[in-house]
């Protein structure tokens, strides 16, 4: 996990080049609430390359009430973005997985052994509801592990219903779930409370991955602006899991 130092005497900056890979973004056009055109997609990819990333594993939503994305749909859009990015002279590697909302459809896919798109290392990026907790979060994560996947919980700092008992985060990690914090959370983009929880998770060494969760170019502009202003992070050593993913 990332062992972040929060020493006010130290410079709090981060080199995104030292991370290299972004494992959470929405840059495939027209299939979720991310970019809507191929031009926007290329702009996003270009900005991510400029920020220092050498690889993107973009993760469109699979949320059956509104985003009925399948591996075939995602792969087709991926090829379009790859080709357009090559045509624009970009060299960043672009791959795709998915961000799976844990709902009834997801549970059916897991139970039936259907194809799921994974991050490197057979990792499965999943998200929870924002407003109310699932009653069976632990059971769902156990089912993922039982099927041979490594669950990665997206943006745990944004599930505010966990704030009353933050020990739940450690329980999730102890049960084999990796946690991914949004870079934007650490910029204060989502508000002070989410910023504080993101910092708490980092201080307590519970975070394995950072991801932009960028849906639009403005998100990347915010990251670039924050980084230029000697932002909020210190990155004292290489995280083997992250670098070797």
From TrEMBL:
Gene Ontology molecular function: any one: manganese ion binding
UniProt keyword list: Hydrolase
Listed transmembrane segments: none
Gene3D superfamilies for this protein: Metal-dependent hydrolases (3.20.20.140)
Reactions catalysed, as given in the entry: O-phospho-L-tyrosyl-[protein] + H2O = L-tyrosyl-[protein] + phosphate
Enzyme Commission numbers on file: 3.1.3.48
PANTHER family on file: TYROSINE-PROTEIN PHOSPHATASE YWQE
Family to which the UniProt record says this protein belongs: Belongs to the metallo-dependent hydrolases superfamily. CpsB/CapC family.
Protein name per the record: protein-tyrosine-phosphatase
């Amino acid at each position: 996990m990332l062992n972040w130092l929060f020493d006010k005497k130290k410079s709090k900056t981060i080199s995104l080049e030292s991370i290299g890979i972004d494992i959470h973004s929405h840059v495939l056009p027209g299939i979720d609430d991310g970019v809507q055109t191929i031009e926007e997609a290329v702009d996003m990819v270009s900005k991510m390359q400029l920020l220092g990333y050498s690889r993107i594993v973009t993760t469109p939503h699979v949320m059956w009430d509104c985003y009925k994305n399948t591996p075939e749909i995602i792969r087709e859009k991926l090829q379009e973005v790859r080709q357009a990015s090559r045509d624009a002279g970009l060299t960043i590697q672009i791959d795709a997985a998915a961000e799976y909302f844990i709902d009834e459809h997801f549970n059916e896919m897991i139970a039936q052994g259907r194809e799921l798109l994974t991050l490197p290392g057979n990792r499965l990026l999943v998200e929870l509801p924002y407003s109310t907790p699932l009653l069976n979060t632990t059971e769902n994560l156990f089912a993922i592990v039982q099927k041979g996947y490594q669950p990665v919980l997206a943006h745990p700092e944004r599930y505010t219903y966990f704030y009353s008992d933050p020990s739940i985060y450690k329980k999730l990690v102890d049960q084999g779930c990796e946690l991914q914090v949004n870079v934007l959370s650490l910029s204060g983009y989502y508000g002070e409370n989410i910023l504080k929880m993101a910092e708490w998770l980092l201080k307590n060494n519970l975070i394995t991955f950072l991801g932009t969760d960028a849906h639009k170019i403005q998100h990347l502009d915010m990251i670039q602006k924050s980084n230029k202003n000697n932002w909020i992070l210190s990155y004292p050593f290489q995280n083997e899991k992250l670098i070797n993913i």
